[in-house]
Write a structure and sequence with these properties.
Layout lengths: L1 H8 L13 H10 L19 H24 L3 H10 L2 H4 L11 H7 L3 H9 L11 H28 L4 H29 L8 E8 L2 E7 L11 E7 L9 E5 L6 E4 L8 E9 L2 E2 L3 E8 L17 H16 L6 H4 L31 E9 L2 E4 L7 E5 L6 H11 L6 H9 L7 H20 L6 E2 L4 E2 L5 E8 L10 E4 H7 L11 H7 L1 H10 L7 E6 L2 E3 L4 E6 L7 E6 L6 H12 L16 H16 L11 E2 L5 E3 L3 E7 L6 E2 L13 E5 H9 L1
Parallel strand pairs: 9-14, 16-22, 17-23
Antiparallel strand pairs: 1-2, 2-5, 3-4, 3-6, 6-7, 6-8, 9-10, 9-11, 10-15, 12-14, 13-14, 16-19, 17-18, 18-24, 20-22, 21-22
Helix pairs in contact: 1-3, 2-3, 3-4, 3-6, 4-7, 6-7, 8-9, 13-14
Length: 690
């Protein structure tokens, strides 16, 4: 059967028993399907074809078959097949919005047979209704014509079957008769579905929120009624008048994957009323007014006219750096670098071949000192030297100064890997000084230059938040970088991480592993940290929890392991904007020193932000393992909203002033559950900037 042939063209999986064939689907398939292509499409090998023109012809034929198969699946109401095809084909490959010979689209058939699951699946994929139906009358006339022509064709074939003697032609006519009888019933069902349908009810809910000082966001939900036809689009209208006269604007939304719309280009400080209507094949339904009934575009900064904190900062820093470079351009400190011995120059330092050059200066073992290692990884592979070792260079074999301050300085240097040569030239002038710190930092710059030269790569990646220390007196600073491109390098060796870990011969005891052994043991964890630290939050307003702890030489901040570049947080809502009215309410709450809202109050139940904060605070307290009654002493930071670009913003929740930062030796009764870590504050700041 033709239906079974089309099933063979789909993914190899269990299918429902085939239903009666559609005559038009059969015609489309027979017209384009030759015998040599009646095979499962997974065995199709374009590489064996000859000529670009033939490939293009076969591609078009194959796409046409996919389109025909989709029509047949919708006509047979086979939801599984429809979903499978929408999953594996793009709308363009399925020709989703091109009418067939009857002037119908797959979505038309689904909605007029009242098949809601298939219609929703098609709408999610971007399906539209046929442009032939410009009015209710045109749709009704079109359906009546299809029913009449199908009935006429059934009568003609029936007469031929009755009057002709049994033969091969008669058998074929009987098949055609059965197919047209099936199509006649389909068109009658579509016509009845259209006639009994009614216009949709109003959307069940419409929520209006302030998106910025010039825009409003409208979120709506489909009508609750199940008796009307499938809704295929919505209309958003807005006006300054509650009667919507005059109407200031409207927008039709026919992409129904997300039921929301942002009204742009509004006037700040002006109240706008919004309503939404639903549409189906019987026309537009009644509008639903928004909740609240109007909103005023604004932003929290309008409360006191405050400018963005970071406005112009990046430009000012770039200008300052340019001035510093200009001052040092003709400085005598450049001379020592110009007159360095030739041994420091590598004729092929730009090439990764140095990884496999016998004379490379990578180290295989550590001998009590400060070292730098660079981890480059791609998928489950890691870049190694010609001796299957992780690249390691020595910084200082007599290191004795305070490590943390030097380490934090190096993390800042990692933001300007391309400027290492210039930094070396600037630090060289201080070599005559007896400063241990300057000597160590100059050696760090030399080690970085050596690593860049041997690898032929300037960007060494992100510095891991803490160095590795062993009991032998070795300190290993680790940088991490993911290689995402498919670029290949001559003679470069990528080794699977598991092979590197299992193949290394340790020279230390399990009780006292060396820093290199500790690195290999924890390598997967470090790579996971590096990947998670580059993840971004989805757009929205968040509630963050600020908790610090201090040590002798640093302050550390509590962060979640899954997103270590962000404070502990929960999402308040998807709209990141805080309006002027909301900020005024927060300021009023702070001015009267009210506790954090953890219990509902009748007079505030109508404040959406108040309700959202209640839910968020309870969720956050549970996340960090703090009893909810303790949150009554916590405070919301009311000086500003922390904006991270245009799509993410934070409100901060602070513990009591005495507990914001836990001092050394101070007992912290509320220990977070597993899944958190503490980062040095400077490392956290760099991660947040990245």
């Amino acid at each position: 059967k033709m239906t079974q042939q089309m099933r063979d063209l789909q993914l190899a999986q269990a299918r429902k028993p085939p239903g009666p064939s559609s005559p038009n689907a059969a015609k489309r398939l027979y017209r384009n399907l030759s015998g040599k292509f009646r095979v499962n499409y997974t065995s199709f090998d374009e590489g064996s074809l000859v000529g670009r023109g033939e490939k293009e012809k076969l591609r078009k034929s194959y796409l046409f078959q996919s389109n025909a198969a989709l029509f047949e699946a919708v006509e047979l109401q086979d939801l599984d097949r429809v979903q499978e095809m929408l999953k594996h084909y793009s709308p363009e490959e399925l020709d989703l919005n091109t009418p067939n010979s009857e002037g119908l689209l797959p979505l038309d058939i689904a909605i007029m047979t009242n098949n809601a699951p298939i219609a929703r699946a098609l709408l999610q994929a971007g399906a539209k209704e046929s442009p032939h139906f410009v009015s209710l009358e045109s749709r009704s006339l079109h359906l009546s014509t299809l029913v009449r022509e199908a009935e006429q064709r059934v009568n003609e074939l029936m007469a031929q079957v009755v009057n002709e003697a049994p033969n091969a032609d008669c058998s074929e006519k009987e098949k055609q008769l059965k197919a047209w009888e099936w199509r006649f019933r389909l068109y009658k069902r579509m016509k009845a579905g259209f006639e009994h349908a009614r216009a949709p009810d109003a959307p069940s809910s419409v929520h209006l929120s302030v998106a910025s000082s010039t825009s409003l966001q409208v979120t709506f939900w489909e009508p609750l009624s199940v008796n009307s036809a499938i809704v295929t689009k919505y209309k958003v209208e807005w006006s300054c008048s509650p009667t919507f006269s005059p109407l200031l604007g409207e927008a039709v939304i026919d992409k129904l994957k997300d039921l929301h719309f942002t009204i742009q280009g509004l006037v700040s400080g002006t109240a706008y009323h919004v309503r939404v209507s639903a549409y189906n094949m019987k026309g537009w339904g009644p509008p639903q007014a928004s909740t609240p009934p109007f909103a005023i575009p604004s932003n929290w900064r309008e409360y006191d006219g405050r400018a963005p904190r970071r406005r112009g900062q990046a430009e000012a820093l770039d200008h300052l750096l340019g001035q510093v470079k200009t001052v040092h351009q003709h400085c005598i400190c450049h001379e020592p670098c110009k007159n360095q011995p030739q041994s420091r120059k590598h004729s092929v330092s730009k090439s990764l071949k140095h990884l496999f050059h016998p004379g490379s200066k990578f180290l295989k073992t550590l001998k009590r000192g400060l070292y730098l290692t660079a981890i480059f990884y791609k998928d489950d592979n890691i870049l190694v030297t010609h001796e299957d070792q992780i690249p390691v260079v020595e910084i200082d074999d007599t290191y004795s100064c305070l490590l943390m301050q030097d380490f934090l300085w190096l993390t800042k240097v990692s933001c300007m890997w391309d400027e290492i040569l210039w930094l070396r030239q600037c630090v060289t002038v201080s070599q005559s000084s007896c400063s241990c710190i300057l000597q160590t930092r100059f050696k760090m710059l030399l080690a970085i230059s050596q690593m860049q030269g041997l690898l032929g790569i300037q960007d060494l990646g992100q510095v891991f938040f803490e160095p590795i220390k062993d009991k032998q007196g070795n300190i290993l600073i680790v940088t991490l970088k993911e290689v995402k491109t498919n670029q290949t390098f001559e003679s470069v060796r990528w080794v699977p991480i598991c092979k590197l870990q299992s193949g290394r011969k340790s020279v230390s005891s399990p009780e006292e592993p060396t820093a290199l052994d500790m690195l290999l043991i924890s390598l997967q964890d470090k790579l996971a940290y590096h990947q998670r630290s580059s993840h971004a939050l989805s757009p929205g307003l968040y509630l963050g929890y600020l908790k610090l702890c201090s040590a002798v030489d640093q302050i550390r901040v509590l962060v979640p392991e899954q997103l270590p570049n962000i404070l502990c947080h929960v999402k308040i809502r998807s709209n990141p904007n805080i309006s002027r009215e909301e900020w005024e309410w927060l300021q009023k709450m702070a001015s009267v020193e009210e506790p954090v809202p953890t219990e509902p109050e009748t007079d505030r139940s109508q404040n959406p932000l108040f309700q959202e904060l209640q839910v968020a605070i309870k969720e956050l307290m549970t996340l960090v393992n703090i009893p909810l009654q303790e949150a009554k002493d916590f405070r919301l930071y009311s000086q500003e909203v922390l904006d991270f670009g245009d799509q993410v913003s934070f409100l901060l929740l602070l513990p009591p002033s005495d507990d914001v930062c836990t001092a050394p030796g101070q007992n912290n009764p509320y220990t977070p559950r597993s899944g958190f870590l503490t980062l040095p504050l400077q490392i956290f700041e760099l991660g947040e900037e990245r």
